[in-house]
């Protein structure tokens, strides 16, 4: 939650973290986008997640799902599949998570880290997008985004970002912020968020001496990003 | 919790974070001050908060309330109002939170970020202080502290501190630590804590390249603060 | 959890954090080591901790216990004593925690910070190791490791590490990672992990300006550690 909140603040968004079902009816109508992350899932948080997702869908607000470690247990997989039924605008995971969701099957898994390359998940992502109606994004060496027909790849980022906990969670949050600003172009917003986060990583990497300083420089760079850096560095290509 | 704990450790305090009602009767008698923060409020944490506040009051120990996003939902506002009934020594919030508490009314809100300037909340702060018997502090461009009669402003700090999650929570923790040391002068302790945290921000800002490096430098500066820096930088004035 | 996860990732491990009892049966069989930390203990997490520990023991997987603030309350002490019954491979605490566990007695305590030196806890550690069958480690100016007969001291580290929250929790996580790699030499793995973490602290300290930059440099250094640094800096001695 710490890195997610700081990522959003640095990008100019105004995040609030709520878990309690009692607050969902009052608070959800005020958000511009909802972000549901199942990272440290517990049985009593799931009803809040579902209530918020349902309400967001009813109100026509975009909502984004991060199915962290979807294949790690039957409980977690079922929770994610139930959330997918509630019509997320975007689903962003690593290759193993998207494959687990697409096949609705548990493990083999390494936990929260992917044991697949993102390109291996392209077909799974396309199927999941078609079945769910969501934009599906797969993080990896190349980040993939698909709506079931179009597929683009965002080629920014550096490998050391995987050595920082919650970078996946944070880029999903950034996707939610971008989609909040431009809900009618969720596909483009998703690809842009992945690219922008990767660019912040690239710029941070030039100053970093390891994962912890990369984490710091990334957020600083995200905050300081200007159009010139974006124009010269953005690397998004059509993959099909 | 991470930034709060590190802020307290850097300032020389010895924090412990507990949530469970089972531990309150054993542990609360050992604390020098209690800090209750409703940030990620859940229904099952509220009884612990109230039990701890009640016990602290009974034992004559100072306790400090941070009514995070008080106006964001009816559930949260009621929780905060119930806590205010338990006689906090100090209440510290942003302008929107103090206005919500003072008027006992929900929203409009941006979530955890204030949609009001601190000076707009001066009258609300004074009323809340009178009604509750607490010192009330409002963070903002100028930090305001009032006991219902006196009002002082602490003018330290830099705007980028608002781009770091939990800086508000952390300064409230610092207030609790200062009040623990000098419980008979809670008004002065509160103003000093706000000023000291702002000074750490100012000193950190001279080295920072963005919000994440500011966060790091702030804590380092708080740890290294000496009397000379405090004497030359403290900027507290009477506002009425 | 943030520092723990980043410490593990920097050291090359692949951590996953789970709390929910529903996930234990599916997930625990996939881990190479289990780490149970009672830091922010709540009544509904305890059954998950016990179920995971029991399953790890049954499956012959190493598991490591961090009895955070064991003496702070009767509830916490009982929870820790119940966990000790489930045959942890290693128990790592500060002196006050190990003394509380060994005597099965509550406080006096300062909360999560130790009010004893590690050397004061040597006899308590030895007793606890004999009674429990676990390797027992006590962090402090000198880190002590004992299996009840042998006692070694790891002399690496710097005092400022105590001004960073969760460094104790993080070194216990590193012990779990080391024991996962070499479960047949848990005694040596524990001493090595304590020394390696201390070396990262020493190397980080040469660049640090305070606790927050030390935290960053420590993780960077842990990630960048090479055999030369380890060979020249490791300082482990027999204490009896």
From TrEMBL, chains A, B, C:
InterPro entries in the cross-refs: Hyethyz_kinase (IPR000417), Ribokinase-like (IPR029056)
Xref: CDD domains: THZ_kinase
Keywords (A to Z) from UniProt: ATP-binding, Kinase, Magnesium, Metal-binding, Nucleotide-binding, Thiamine biosynthesis, Transferase
NCBIfam families: PRK09355.1 (NF006830)
UniProt source species: Citrus sinensis (Sweet orange)
Annotated function: Thiazole kinase involved in thiamine salvage pathway.
Full protein name: Hydroxyethylthiazole kinase
EC number: 2.7.1.50
Example GO biological process: thiamine diphosphate biosynthetic process
Catalysed reaction, written as an equation: 5-(2-hydroxyethyl)-4-methylthiazole + ATP = 4-methyl-5-(2-phosphooxyethyl)-thiazole + ADP + H(+)
UniProt superkingdom: Eukaryota
GO molecular function, one term: magnesium ion binding
Record pathway: Cofactor biosynthesis; thiamine diphosphate biosynthesis; 4-methyl-5-(2-phosphoethyl)-thiazole from 5-(2-hydroxyethyl)-4-methylthiazole: step 1/1
Nucleotide-binding found in the keyword field: yes
Needed co-factor(s): Mg(2+)
Keyword Transferase: yes
Pfam families: HK (PF02110)
Catalytic EC class: transferase
Family: Belongs to the Thz kinase family.
């Amino acid at each position: 939650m710490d890195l997610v909140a700081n990522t959003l603040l640095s990008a100019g968004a105004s995040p609030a973290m709520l878990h309690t079902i009692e607050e969902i009816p009052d608070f959800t109508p005020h958000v511009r986008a909802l972000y549901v992350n199942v990272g440290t899932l517990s049985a009593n948080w799931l009803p809040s997640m579902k209530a918020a997702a349902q309400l967001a869908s009813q109100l026509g607000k975009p909502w984004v799902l991060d199915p962290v470690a979807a294949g790690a247990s039957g409980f977690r997989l079922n929770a994610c599949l139930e959330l997918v039924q509630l019509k997320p605008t975007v689903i962003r995971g690593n290759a193993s998570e998207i494959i687990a969701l697409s096949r609705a099957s548990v493990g083999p898994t390494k936990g929260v880290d992917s044991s697949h390359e993102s390109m291996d998940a392209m077909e799974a992502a396309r199927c999941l997008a078609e079945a769910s109606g969501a934009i599906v994004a797969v993080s990896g060496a190349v980040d993939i985004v698909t709506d079931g027909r179009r597929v683009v790849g965002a080629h920014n980022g550096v490998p050391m970002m995987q050595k920082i906990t919650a970078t996946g969670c944070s880029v999903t949050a950034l996707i939610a912020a971008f989609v909040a600003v431009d809900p009618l172009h969720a596909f483009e917003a998703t690809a842009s968020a992945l690219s922008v986060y990767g660019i912040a990583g690239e710029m941070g990497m030039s100053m970093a001496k390891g994962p912890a300083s990369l984490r710091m420089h990334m957020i600083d760079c995200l905050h300081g990003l200007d159009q010139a850096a974006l124009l010269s560095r953005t690397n998004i290509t059509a993959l099909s």
